[in-house]
Amino acid sequence: MIKLLNRLQPHFSSHILLYHSTFSVVPDSIKEGLHNVTPDSIYRQISWLKRYFDIVELDELFTQNDILGKVAITFDDAYISVFKEALPVLKALSVPSTIFINGASLEGKLFWRDKIRFLINNSLVEDFLEKNISLSRAYNLTAQNFYKMTKSSKINSKLIDTLLDNYLEEIGVSLESFCIDSIKYIKNTPLLSYGNHTYNHYLLSSLSREQQEEEIVKNHQLLENCGVRLSKVFSIPFGGDRDFNSITIELLKKYDYIGFLYSKNRINTMGDRDRDRGLISKDRYMVGSDFNSFQRQIFKLGIKGLI
Predict the structure, then answer these.
(1) How many Å apart are CA 200 and CA 6, to the nearest integer?
(2) Which of 47, 63, 92, 198 has the smallest CB count inside 10 Å?
(3) In total, how many domains does the chain have?
(4) Is residue 37 predicted with pLDDT exceeding 90?
(5) Do 149 and 208 reside in the same domain of the chain?
C-alpha cells in the first residue's frame, strides 16, 4: 500500500536526495554516527525513483519553475566510497548527481567529523574532555551530548578541530582518511557535477565573517582550479536553520550562488521556488539505509508535505 501511494508523489512534490558515505562495509572507527547507504540499497532506491520521477541535475531544480515530479541526487563530504562504490551504480542507471566537496580533504586534512566519530567509537570522549576541561566546563560538554554539542553554533568549529588535532597528536594516533585526498578523483564526466560544501565543513554560524568568507572562497577557488563542471548551488554544512546566518547569505550572493540547500529531512511540495533572504532554497532528506525504510520514509515525508 505504501509503495502504491508513493507513486502519487510526482504529482505534488520534488525530491532532493542526500547521501553521505556509501560503503558496502563501514569502517569500524567511524561506524557510530555515520550516515551510510550501501551501493546495493542505492541501486534499488534510485531504480524505483527512475520509474516514477524524472531524475535531473540539481541546478535544474533551482532554475526552472515547474519542478513537480523531479528528483536530484546529492552527496556531501566526498567520501571515497562514493567515487569507488556509488558512482558506478549511478553510471549504470544513467542518472546525474552532484558531489559537494570539502576542500580540506583534497589537501590531506582529515574530516573533523570523522575525528569526532573516532573518539566516540573508541570510548575516548571522556579523556578528551578531561584534557580540555575549560572547554567542557564552558559548554557543559559530556560524553552523552558530545556529538550533538560539537555541532552547536555556540562553539567555534575551528577551535574544536584544533583541539582534536592536538589531542590526537598527544595520544599518538594517526587516523586514516575516508574522504578523497587527491584531486585525481575529481574528473569531468557527463553525469556529474561538483559543488561547494566549504573548505572544512565547519558550522558557519559559529564562525566570524572573515572565517566564513575564507571557508567559502578557499573552497570555491580550489574547485574552480580542478576545471570540472560546478554547481551554482551551495550546500550548507549540517543544513539546519541555525547552522548559517545572514552573513552566510550575503557571502553567497557576493560570490554569485543562485541558491542553497537545507538538510532538514523534507521534500519540496507543489513546485514552489522558495526565496530565502534573496536566494532560492530547497530542502532535502538523508536517505534511509535500505529500500523498505526508504519507502516508509518518503511516505511519511509526503504526508508531512501535504499537511
Answers:
(1) 37
(2) 92
(3) 2
(4) yes
(5) no
Domain range holding 281? 2-109+181-306
Nearest CA to 216 out of 107, 101, 115 is that of 101
The C-alpha cell that represents 84 in the structure block:
569507488
Average pLDDT over residues 292-296: 96
Q: Is the residue at 175 inside a domain? A: no
* pLDDT tens, residue by residue, 49-104: 999 999 999 999 999 888 999 999 999 999 999 999 999 999 999 999 999 999 99
From CA 52, how far away is CA 22, in angstroms rounded?
A: 24
Strands (E), the chain: 13-19, 54-55, 70-76, 97-101, 192-196, 230-235, 259-261, 268-269, 274-276, 279-282, 285-286
pTM of the shown model: 0.95
Question: Which residue from 225, 234, 275, 277 is spatially nearest to 252, judged by alpha carbons?
Answer: 234
Do 271 and 135 share a structural domain? no
166 and 295 both lie in a single domain: no
What's the pLDDT score for residue 269?
87
Domain boundary (170, 196, 217) is at 170
The rounded distance, in Å, linking the Cα atoms of 147 and 124 is 12
**Is residue 271 scored above 90 in pLDDT?**
no
Please tell me whether residues 80 and 208 are part of one structural domain: yes
Q: Do 235 and 251 fall within a single domain?
A: yes
Pair 98, 193: CB distance under 8 Å: yes
59: left (phi over 0), alpha (psi -120 to 50) or beta: alpha
